[in-house]
Amino acid sequence: MPVITDFSLPSSASALQLSAEKPVTFLSFHASPDPNTGKPWCPDVVAALPHLQEVFSTPQAPQVAFINVGQRDQWKDPSNVYRTKWNVNAVPSLVRYELVDGSVKETGRLAEAQILDRGRLSKFVGDRSASI
């Protein structure tokens, strides 16, 4: 499934649109591109992007939305919306949400170097029952 780069993030995880037909989605939180280089300001994000694009590029891969968290100073602000509303404390972070008993729940998360482990990343994305 293609990577969604223009995803309109709702105000909270509970407002994500999941259904019986689409019971799982992933959000991948990244450093925003540096206006001077066009690349994310965080080297961990630069390293993780090829891994994320590879694992989510197969036709059977679940949906993933790439979310930019802002420039370094915006990200470091403790009141950053991704820190406060989405509980994201590191970039990159890949978070899995699933429909569980009619409610949207976070069912797993990988952050920073965990994403660079291709085996762990593939299992996390492919195994809906694993909570890592």
Automatic annotation (TrEMBL):
Domain Thioredoxin: 20-100
InterPro entries in alphabetical order: Thioredoxin-like_sf, TXNDC17-like, TXNDC17_dom
GO terms, molecular function: protein-disulfide reductase [NAD(P)H] activity
GO terms for cellular component: cytosol
SUPFAM superfamilies, per database record: Thioredoxin-like
Family classification: Belongs to the thioredoxin family.
Protein name, as recorded: Thioredoxin domain-containing protein
